[in-house]
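User: I'm new to structure prediction. If I give you an amino acid sequence, what do you actually give back? Let's try with this one:
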Amino acid sequence: MQDLAGIAVTTLLGAALAGYLLGSIPFGVLLTRAAGAGDVRKIGSGNIGATNVLRTGRKDLAFATLILDAGKGAAALLIARAVTGSDVVAAIAGGAAFLGHLYPVWLGFKGGKGVATFFGLMLAAAWPLGLVAAAVWLLTAAVFRISSLSALVATVLTPILALMPIATLGPPAPDSVFLLALFAMTLIWLRHFDNIIRLIRGKEPRIGARPAG
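Assistant: Good question. You get back a string of structure tokens that encode the predicted 3D arrangement of the chain. For your 213 residues, that looks like this:
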């Protein structure tokens, strides 16, 4: 019994560490530097995500950052699920990858806000849920043209959607998916505190705009 407990703990810790290291790869920084677009942390909002990479004027780099940031969260979850066959271990690996993106050790624990990684996680965990969440983001963005607002609306609705049949085109998503969505949503809202203040004041920049200063 103790051997089984030890194996379980080792598996969970290994999945968490591997997920964190994968999630902590700062693709926004690496791509902009490699392309000669400068340090994205010194541009616009200073964020390393796709929205701020877009402010370099390089749509190709922003798209690549979006895909890679989403992909690393999805990869962490899917690899853990494939290796262990456990939705719980997969959720832990995915959650750790999300933490890695927000707090990467390579950048002094100052990372992105996690929106792209969130959608990658949801698509990998329960693809119908991920698609609905992405649709909510797109609809909100089309109406209001504010990226942060779109992220806040989509992420707060995702845990609720996970409890509904639409999450898997059948039964509600597993508890591990709901908890992963709730965990990521909470951190995204915390990371968007400054954006929320600007939204309240009507000063949040719109998609494609270059913030003053």
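You can read the tokens as a compact description of the fold. Here is one thing that stands out. The chain has a mean pLDDT of 90.
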